[in-house]
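User: Sequence recovery, please. Input:
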């Protein structure tokens, strides 16, 4: 799930961060987050196997909630600001926050982003994947692949001693040559005892360095990349966010841990 910056794209030009409180997790807290994230990574693997033509997004949601609870975790999306489900299921031009529905049936050639999270002993995880439904066009395969690659370009800079904007800039620099649209109204975020903690993490360069990265910080980094223009429409259900031009969009997210040295640990991958 995403952090909706109240000031939208103005985040790029803000001169100074408002007062930030970016939490540093203790070794015990990191262990709890590792567990929460491992459970989520396994659930994503199971959901991926179910993505095929003919399944409804509601069936995927029911399965996700069952797996979360079987693992003694709690779905953190369910009832978050009134969200009615345990996953966001966003198909084709839906960017994020799609509400699972019985009558939303996947078809050959669609792409679907599944965003999911859970809580273990008070600690949150959050991750998203975009999957092909059956055979998709090379153009969409490339969109999914480069969205994932932009995440990896970003986290190469998620190194203690760097600043937040090093991550943001690396994502934008990676995506720009492809001519894709980078969603600006929604951002990644810190994560821990809350799903959305400081800082908010745009997928584009800010005009300030942002917080200094320290070991024990945990972030959800989540590029949302549109095949066409960056503009988005927020729909009347209060959640579903689509591209303004109706072209498809991909989303990729992991929860990561800033480590003492070198690249971060990706907590939501097996
Ligand atoms: Mg998410
Ligand atoms: Mg998130």
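Assistant: Recovered sequence (270 residues):
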């Amino acid at each position: 799930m995403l952090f909706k910056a109240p000031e939208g794209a103005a985040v790029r030009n803000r001169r100074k961060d408002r007062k930030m409180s970016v939490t540093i997790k203790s070794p015990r807290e990191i262990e709890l987050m590792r567990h929460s994230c491992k459970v989520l990574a396994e659930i994503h693997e199971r959901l991926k196997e179910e993505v095929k033509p003919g399944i409804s997004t509601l069936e995927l949601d029911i399965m996700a909630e069952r797996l979360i609870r079987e693992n003694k975790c709690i779905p953190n999306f369910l009832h978050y600001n009134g969200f009615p489900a345990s996953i966001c299921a966003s198909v084709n031009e839906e960017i994020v926050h799609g509400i699972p529905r019985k009558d939303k049936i996947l078809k050959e050639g669609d792409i679907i982003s599944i965003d999911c999270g859970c809580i273990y002993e008070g600690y949150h995880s959050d991750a998203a994947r975009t999957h092909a439904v059956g055979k998709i066009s090379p153009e969409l395969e490339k969109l999914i692949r480069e969205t994932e690659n932009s995440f990896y370009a970003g986290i190469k800079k998620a190194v203690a001693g760097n600043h937040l904007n090093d991550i943001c800039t690396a994502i934008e620099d990676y995506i720009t040559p492809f001519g894709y649209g980078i969603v600006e109204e929604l951002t990644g975020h810190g994560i821990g005892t809350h799903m959305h903690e400081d800082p908010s993490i745009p997928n584009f360069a800010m005009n300030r360095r942002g917080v200094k990265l320290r070991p024990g910080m945990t972030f959800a980094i989540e590029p949302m990349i549109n095949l066409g223009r960056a503009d988005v429409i927020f729909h009347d259900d209060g959640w579903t966010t689509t591209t303004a031009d109706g072209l498809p969009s991909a989303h990729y997210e992991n929860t990561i841990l800033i480590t003492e040295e070198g690249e971060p640990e990706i907590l939501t991958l097996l």
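The chain has four helices and 16 strands.
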